[in-house]
Amino acid sequence: MSLTVIAMVNKTGVRKAQPPMQLGRITRSKKNCTTRINDEINLVETSVQAIEEDVEGQLNERDQHIADASHQNGCQNEGDDHILNELNHEGHNQNGTAMNELKFQTDVTSPPVKKACVAMMKKAVRQQRYKLKKKYFDACPLHLVPKTSPVTSMSNDQWDKLVDYWKSEEKMVISEKNKTNRSKVQFHQTTGSRSYEMHIVNLANKYQNEPPNALDLFKELHYSKTKGFTPIVQSIIAQVEDKIHAPLDDGEESKDVTDAVFEVLGQKNKKNGFLANVGMKTFLRADNAESQRELQAELVAEQQTSNDLRELVKTQQQQMDEMMKKFQESETARARQDEELKNKQAETDALIKGLMSMIPASLPTR
């Protein structure tokens, strides 16, 4: 079974863009290129190392079809299968542009494949809508926003719905809130439009002997060729290196690089997901991690308290057993004394009775 990646090529000859060299080699070979999807980071892996970037470029640059807000919501409601069906069909768009297909051998029924393809298409649609908003909506006052669609791939009705969605009060509030949140970002990536996953793939030649650790990736993804490291990034690198090379006590193991990066980033930003984004650690909010550490400490304290109570109960039980033993011994001694006293009393009564029997029964009266 093959997964189809759609590229837009104009039949009229106005646009004569050639496919990238890697894709050309694949199509000339008349074979399906085997593809694998990494479930942990949604990364497409093939025998040709650069194929991932080429496929993403095909989606971002050639696929000019933009869905309006209602269509996108419809796709979300219908589920991922709807988007996969859109990917695997062949036809023509409104302008008569042929949909040439480049096929890759993969299992389209696999959940990781579905997840990666849906994420890729949603990202392409979202990116194109962002570019339209930035160019035709944000750049001019509201009364100067085009009344008709500025692109041929979208109808006027779709454009009106999209503009109404952008200028709605709810959307404006969300937009301002997102701007405020973006202003709080401390660690800006320096990979441009390229994703972390794609950048890591391109680092394979640089780290052939040994894969990069978390600190290496942090440096690679936050280094600018023109500005270098920002002061806050330099501070993070210094703190991580101090943790790694800190003097160790006897029997203590050195700090793992991934754990050191996680701890330092967690101190700066409670919601930092850098390690999760590069596929090195499951995303865990720092506040949740702190809560878990507190719960773990409380659990250890409770276990210690429980052990102390158990020892106390054991000691008290031993004391009670000793007291019970002494009580039983005293009771046995008392019972023996009572028995002895009873026997002595019986003997005394018998002696008195014998003496009384020796006295005459009656004396003469005068």
UniProtKB/TrEMBL annotation:
<protein>
    <submittedName>
        <fullName>Uncharacterized protein</fullName>
    </submittedName>
</protein>
<dbReference type="InterPro" id="IPR004252">
    <property type="entry name" value="Probable_transposase_24"/>
</dbReference>
<feature type="region of interest" description="Disordered">
    <location>
        <begin position="326"/>
        <end position="346"/>
    </location>
</feature>
<dbReference type="Pfam" id="PF03004">
    <property type="entry name" value="Transposase_24"/>
</dbReference>
